[in-house]
Amino acid sequence: MEAVSALSRVDAPAELAADLAAFHHASYGWALECCRRDRQEAEEVLQACYVKALDGRARFGGNSALRTWFFGVIRYTAAERRRRDGFRRLALMNWFAGRPAPKPAASPEHLSGQGELRTRLNRLIVGLSDRQREVLHMVFYQELTLDETAQVLGLSIGSVRRHYERGKARLRLALANTGETK
Amino acid sequence: MTTPDKNEREIRELFSAARRADAEETPGFKETLRAAREVAVKSPASGTRRGLQWAFVGAAASAAVAGFAFWLVLQESPAPLTGSAPETNEPTVTADSPRLEIGVPDPTGMPIAGATVFLDHDNGQTAATRPRTGSDGVAVFTQVKADAGSKIEGSYPGMDSRTETDVAVPPGLVAQRPVRLGSEDKVVASGSVIDRKDTDNSLRFRDEFSGDLPLAGRDYQHVLTLAPGVHDNEGDGNVTVHGSRERDFKSSVDDLSSVDPLAGKIMAHVNSNPVEKSAAKTSGAGVNSTRAKAEPMAISAPTESPEARPSFNTEGYRATTENRFLSVQENPLSTFSIDVDTGSYSNVRRFLTSGTLPPRDAVRIEELLNYFSYDDPTPRGDAPFSARIEIADCPWAPDHRLARIGLKGRTIARGESRGSNLVFLIDVSGSMDTPDKLPLLKSALALLVDQLQGRDRVAMVVYAGASGLVLPSTAGSAKAEIRAALDRLRAGGGTNGAAGVALAYQVARENFIPGGVNRVILATDGDFNLGMTSESDLLGLIKKDADDGIFLTTLGFGTGNYQDHRLEMLADKGNGAYAYIDTIREARKVLVEQIEGTLVTIAKDVKVQIEFNPAQVGAYRLIGYENRMLAKEDFNDDKKDAGEIGAGHSVTALYELVPADVNSAALPAVDSLKYQEAPAPQENSRTSRETLTLKLRYKEPDGAKSRRLSFPVIDDERSFAGASTDFKFAAAVAGFGMLLRDSEHRGDLGFDDVHALALQGIGVDTGGYRAEFLSLVRQAASLQRPSELD
Lengths: 182, 790
Prior knowledge:
The complex is a heterodimer of chains A (about 180) and B (about 800). Chain A is mainly alpha-helical and about 180 residues long. Chain A has helices at about 1-10, 15-20, 25-35, 40-55, 65-95, 115-125, 130-140, 145-155, 155-180. Helix content of chain B is about 25%, strand content about 25%. In chain B, a hairpin with a 6-residue loop joins strand 5 (about 145-155) and strand 6. The interface between A and B is large, with 80 and 71 residues.
């Protein structure tokens, strides 16, 4: 019954839905990053975030841009989900003999130039810490400022700058190591 | 800031290519929204979950009323039990008994490791086995009787047990069923409002009860008297407990005891400050009495100002100051003694499962780390132990590196030893007369007795008002005799610990086995007065016998007046280990699974010294080991005592390193010297890629001269993600300790992060100890909540 009442409210804030639709691509990209590029998980997280936003469980206070606020919701939802599901999946899955734990969806082989570059990037950033990856994603992929990045990630501007500089340095190093061989 | 160079442009291009590639594959907005709505219909509360296809079978409606849910999943057993299955749709009926798997999740659905499960059949017969859940939260009954009306019960300390009746156990099948435990009955009140959302099992509380809950403005005695059977006639905070003699008990509200910590007398007045916020629960006992046991509420009342809650607790912990960051230039050497004690971990677990955060000084991080066994390589050749170092990113300080040093002791087969001469020294004073002390102690020592062999010898000395030999040294094969002596133990009288210690050592000397294990095992709550002997005389006696080859192991029991630091110190002087036994499961770990390590010492006076390369490391901090630090000169001084390592023991130490090129706020700047030059690094420090050199010194168990080992270590620039599972888990444990100690170095680390780290480091987890750690982290996180209420 609860679900139904939640649903009826989904249609009401049409304006909010339109605003969210405007940066849907960016949201999906960020969800992907938060879910370690597991596409199915990213889709589910994004769905859950839309439900939260539209039925009013996550409320936009108007203190920041809608986009930074919603990115925060995505980050929180993905982290929460990882925490809840990680253990359950690990432990309870073993219980059901013969039902293996789901593997993260392998990213499909795309032969387009963009897809190749993306694969290359994903390989290069393996050595970065989670925070460094998140900050670089915010700055280069989403083209947010360091201030906005700090808002989304809930960090101080000082730490964001530090993660940014160190992440970039590591990425440069990785580029230098593999740059010519490609 | 940096000018955009060629590399930065390349980075930008890579990211925007990734963005375009993702955009092509993004599912449409409308499509996503539609999927979101479908998900909302299916499962309104928990969002999305895939993979678990549990059949939801009947009886759920009545179960839901009681506040929990269960599922029953039947599947054919993976391997057919016997014969060939007849080709019908009927379940296979064979002579073999079915298997019953019971999953025990906590209220949030997380599996609990170490929960007990009981099974009663419909004829009233109780299954002989009482399995515990493993790391996957599942307990297995094999060979059970098939019937239709079994009863199963799951229980775990600190949680509400749950019973399920009319469980059908079909023949020839594997039946799987989760029993979800309830949380403790908990009422959370803030201001004048009871938080119904955070209040569990509200059905149990009557409205009148809710009206009486501790609210803002009430004080100590009002809070205390909410417990059933407790009255405060004079209104001075000194309550009476129904059925007990006056002053036979101590009361405590949120660590605030009615006993004066200096005089040991009951105080006339207790805390007059009103309780501002409080959380009360009906489980657990806040009043301890030696004569009568009341079951009142344990009440925690966090107050804002520190002076409002002096630590009037009769449990004894010695304050430790956390190691600071030291500059490599001024302190290039870091020296400490190893420590294999684990007592702090089980003591912390006891606090958390009983619903309070442990006092800061009860948390010794090195003991938390060493509680767990790690998958370090076993030593080859003659060396008694192996060493391994791993360096990777530090999870709580992204600019820093974390180094894990792991030592692993050689294992020894039971047959190799020349027999053990054990003397149990057992505290039977009046203070031991609670279920978590003497009765637990008896079952724990019985586990040890079960493993004795013919060559082994056991004697038993008790001490109370007087001390005496209750069992002369007896062959390990005479198990019935030893068990009978254990059974006869009764608690009562005062405590004259020192006389008992002297007698136990005398018995051990008389039965000395050259080349074998000679050990006194002291089991106590540690609350003994020393008779006519001073503490230093006692320590001198223990130290002298340790030099003669008789070592000491201390096993701590109980709560309320527990003396943690004293037991640790005794074991330290006696060349032995200290363990805290809070449950029979812990007894099994210390006295069965790790019996060799507990009894057989393979190297003594093991010291660690690390020299850092100033060109690579700017500053360092040793995490934990505060009371094991040695001066740099002590390393080569064989007269200086240090820790022992037992067979199969793991020792782990973590250093937080600040790389030389990082300007860290962790290290305050010091003015440069006016009268002398600062020591300059040698030329080779720059050319060497070595980060540090690990040096070890140890003696053979009966040797007097030490040997030295040395290993140079190079940082291979590992990220945290690339580190081993043991590294990740150790980092999580250290982080947990830092949070519980409220360390200034914790950064923005939270219990959530610790949980995530530990999850990455769970590995194979034999015995389920790491899974148990995860549940402690969750418990600690939930205990934070009341103080965060506003």
